Structure formats: structure tokens, C-alpha cells
Amino acid sequence: MLDQLLQIIQTGAKNPQIQVGSISLKTVAQEKILPDPTKDLDWSNFRGAIHDIFSANAKKHPDRECIIETAHFDEPGAKNRVFTYQQIDEASNILAHHFLQKGVKMGDVVMIYAHRGVDLVVAVMGVLKAGATFSVIDPAYPPARQNIYLQVAQPRALVVIEKAGKLAPLVRNYISDELSILTEVPALAIQAGGTLQGGEVDGRDVLADQASLKTEDTGIVVGPDSNPTLSFTSGSEGIPKGVRGRHFSLTYYFPWMAETFGLSEKDCFTMLSGIAHDPIQRDIFTPLFLGAKLLVPTADDIGTPGRLAEWMDDNGATITHLTPAMGQLLSAQATRAIPSLHHAFFVGDILTKRDCLRLQSLARNVAVVNMYGTTETQRAVSYFEIPSINTDPTFLQSQKDVLAAGRGMLNVQLLVVNRNNREQICGIGEIGEIYVRAAGLAEGYLKLPDMTATKFVNNWFVPEGYWRELDTKNVNAPWRNLYMGPRDRLYRTGDLGRYTPEGNVECSGRADDQVKIRGFRIELGEIDTHLSQYPLVRENVTLVKRDKDEEPVLISYIVPLENADLDALVSADETADEEDSVKPGAEIIRGLRKYGKLIKDIKEYLKKKLPSYAVPTG
């Protein structure tokens, strides 16, 4: 602190005209702690495609358990559905060959109408083996919202998982009228013995012609810049943004994570993330890369208070990926200890000491790892580890209430950049905007070149093309013609943060109006866009408030458009009396009574446009 103050005084004395905000607070001593934005980040070290590594594991250990769909806890005699690596590999081969024979090409989008379970894994792997791009729709989303995803993605093929149910008529009509679909698998389901069914069309299973190819790989080669994923984030204009992922980051970090956190093929992972959000990729790909086991709960295991902890203990879960909201659900009303759990990775929202203490009270052996990342970084790319209670029972006492995002993982840098002078990396304690520098950033936004150029920027700390001249790795690799070469890019997160004296990054807010609710990214502008299109809203604004439990909630304020249609949705306040009228908040209560029908109608309208987590509570 004194060094920084001295630096301000000396700089100001030399240049009295300089803006105070442009004075660097990074001292010489801090340079040893903070990231160097000119460092080589191993740009060309592609570890291979996740589906190829999975297939290699299947050939090495064909009978090893891969995925276990656990039985419902309230159905006596029900048994787990257990699938081996060989069964999943062969099933996904069949699906991949189907896509190829129907004309699906590398980079084409295949939309998966999803359900949590083994069928989703088969669908994802089948798409990847065909060299295509998978995207996922949650059946719980309103049909109008599903159509928006289809409109943005323009898929060439469709997979409907049987357990996901039938497409809504509105969605079915949109597909028929607006899309050019090469093939549809109408009811994908893997049977108990590993047989794959796709659903019947004209009295015959759509995958029947490819069943004989189950042991044959497709031979499709993909590279680090090929696009395996299309994930969606909220868009400020009412249309979600599609983020095109790259194969590079799907595998790059796993060896480092295995070594750093002690992950191995002996671990049992959990499948708990939202099925239409990119963290589900982490749930699936981590165990399949390692040759480990993936446990799939029932919906009631997740939704029944106290049950999730019992499920983890019953099935010997050792690794789990959670959002803070899911962590709270896990610990709420839980009485069962989880001694098998040794690592819990959190991402998606701020993590508090209270969240950690609740989980570690159930699982004394669990180390909690707070991670930071976005859809655009493709993976959680930083880490801050809280040791287990059995290892260090007092560690959390020395931490702030909100835990740090930590430091970059292998060859990832969190650069906190001065907002007044982007040529400067912030010094310790100085708030700036967080940029992520890594080789594994996403490609960008689908069909949004201007936004991509704004958010994914070339690293201005090194000359453009500098790393291309030094690139000597994997020059003869079979995927080399699918690689654009080293690209030193930064993703501008919009998050504000600062470095701690240890070199960790703490998040301290946003530079825009994007928020997170229960781990889901939401652009307030997207909510306001839909609100403004409601015919009886003249003006509106949406804000984030804190409820009685200090949890963030969405609140929208509106000014109604006065007309005859409004009168039908306005109630006369017949319950108010003189005594009530002088009570604190009486005016607000009267307004809620008067406009109760209107508020209810607006919520119903928004439920048809937005996912449930983005509908304001008030």
C-alpha cells in the first residue's frame, strides 16, 4: 500500500497533467505475483478430441462401468441401469453413422431435445463423432423460447430423446415450416442391454440401417478450432446469443486437474447441472476423459429436500460439480453425511463461506474448489481451493464472506485491466475489468461478428501474429489443416475485480447490467425487451434486489398504459379503510391489490417468452 502511494506521488510529480485513474498501481515487487500478459500459453498443444479419447478408453476397458442411472428411491425392487464404456461407445457410433449417411457435415448443428440421463450422453457423443456441433434444448423451456433457439441455431438434424416427451405443436410447426432438417431421430433410447433405438418412422426404426456399424469408428478428424458445441447465453435485445465452442478446451485442462485435485478413473462423478447449460459438458466429459464413472440421479433425488445427500452417500459419489444454488439444495434439510465426497467444484455465481460450511458439515472430507468462468471461456478457468475440514478446520475463518475466484488454471490468466488505461494491468487492490487470456476461449458468437469483435479481442500486449512465427508444435498432426494457428486473444468478461496480495482475483461487481440468478446468466435488457412488448406496459425497468435471505431476486417495475383494455385487468380496492391508509407501505399494498390481475397476466406472458429462472418474482 505504501509503495503504491509513493508511486502515485512520484508519477504525479513528474506529470501533473496525468489523470489519477491512469496512474499505474502495479509496483515492481507485485510483478512477481501478478500474471505476465506476454507469456507463452501453450497455444498449439491440442490433446485430442474428447470423443476420440473416450473411444480409446472404451477399447482399453470395454466392460468398465461408465454411466449408472440410479433407481428411484421410492420404488421397492427397482434396479440401477448400468452401462459400460463399450455399450456407450457402440451406441454413439450407430448414431454418428446415421448422421453421416443422412448428409450431416462437419460443423452442422444437431439440436438435442434433452433429458437428464444416459441417452443424452449417447446423443452428445454421436454428434461429436460425426464431426458436427451439438446444442441442447430443455423441454421445460416455453415453446416460444425453444423456437428462438432453433431460429438462432438453424440445425440440420434433430434428436428427440424419448424420455423428453413430444415436441409442442408450436415447435413442431416451426421445424416443418422454417428449418431444413436432413434427419430426425424421433425417440432416442438405449435399452438395458445396450441396444440403441431411435424411434420408428413408417414402421421401421430410423437407426436400423446403421446398427451393423456399431463397432466401426467414423474416422472423422476434428481439430482444436473445430466447433463441437453451440451454447446459449442471454441477449440484451431479447434474442439469446449462440456461443460457438472449440474442441481445444474440451480436453486441455483435464490432465492438470487430475494431477492438482487427485482425480482418477476410480472416481464417481455426478450429473447435476442444468441439461441445457454448458456446465453439463463438464459433468459428462470429465469422467469420460478419465475413464471414470458417471452417476445420474432421478428428478426426485434432486427435488426432494434432504434426498440429494442421501443419494450421494448411497452411491458413493466422490466428485460433484455444483452451482451455489445447487449446493444450497444439497445441504437443505440434509441429515446424511457424505464421507465419500472428496472434491466439490463450484461455478456459476458467488460462493460464500456459509455455502462452504453447510456442505463441509455434511462432507468433512470434501475440499471445495471455487471456480470462475463463462460460456465464452468454455470452461471454468480459475480456481481457489478450500481444504476439507478434516485437513484444515480453521481455514475458512481467515477468509472473507465471499470467496475469491482465485487464479488461472494451467496456462490461463485472469488479467485485471485498468479501466482508464487498458495498457496497464491493475496493481493489488485496484479495481479493474477482468479479461481472460487463454488458448481455450470459445470461437465467438454465432452470426454476430461485431459482438464477437467487441468481446473477443486480440492481446494488445504482444504484436499481432507474434506466436505464429514461433509455432513449432504438432506441425505434422492430422488435424493441422483444421487449426488456425496460435491466436492470442482476451475475452472481455464485463466483470469487475481486483488482485489480492496472494495474486488471487476477487470479483466485485459488473461493468454492465448482466446478472446471475441461481447460477444462470441473465441480461436485464432481455427481460425488459419482452416486458416492453406487452401491450399494456408503457415503461418498464428490471432490477436485482435481495430477499429476506439475502438471495438475489429479479424485480420489474412498470408504468401501465392507460386504456380500456387495462380496465379489465384492474381491481377496485374495496378492502382499504382509513386506518389502513396511514400504515407504512399502504400505497404499495393498494397498488398490488389494484393491479394484481395485470401483474399475474404479465407473469404468464413472460413465462411463454423466458426460461423460468428469468421471470421476475415481483
Please provide a written account of the structure:
β27 and β28 (552-560) form a beta hairpin. The chain has 20 helices and 28 strands. α2 (50-60) packs across α3, α5 (143-153) runs parallel beside α6 and α12 (324-331) packs across α13 (353-362). Among the domains are: 2-44 and 412-510, Roll (Luciferase, domain 3), CATH 2.30.38; 253-409, ANL, N-terminal domain (Rossmann fold), CATH 3.40.50; 514-614, GMP Synthetase, Chain A, domain 3, CATH 3.30.300. With 618 residues, it is an alpha/beta fold. The longest helix is centred in the first third of the chain and has 17 residues, at 85-101. It starts with a helix and ends in an 11-residue tail after the last helix. The model has no long low-confidence stretch (mean pLDDT 90). The strands form eight sheets. A five-stranded mixed β-sheet has the order 4-3-5-6-7, with helices on both faces. A five-stranded mixed β-sheet has the order 14-15-16-17-18. Strands 19, 20, 22, 23 and 24 form a five-stranded antiparallel β-sheet that branches.
Question: Summary?
Answer:
With about 625 residues, the chain is α/β, with parallel strands linked by helices. The strands form eight sheets. The protein has a five-stranded mixed beta sheet, sandwiched between helices.
Beta-strand portion reads: 15-25%
Tally of alpha and pi helices: 20
Beta-strand segment tally: 28
Overall pLDDT metric:
90
> And the CATH topology of the domain at 253-409?
Rossmann fold
- Strand-pairing-aware structural class: alpha/beta
Main sheet attributes: strand count, strand direction, barrel closure? 5 strands, mixed
Uncertain spans, ≥5 residues at pLDDT below 50? none
* End-to-end CA span: 44 Å
CATH class of the domain at 253-409: Alpha Beta
The CATH H-level homologous superfamily of the domain at 253-409:
ANL, N-terminal domain
Rg: 26 Å
**Physical arrangement of strands within the biggest beta sheet:** 4-3-5-6-7
* Shape descriptor: globular
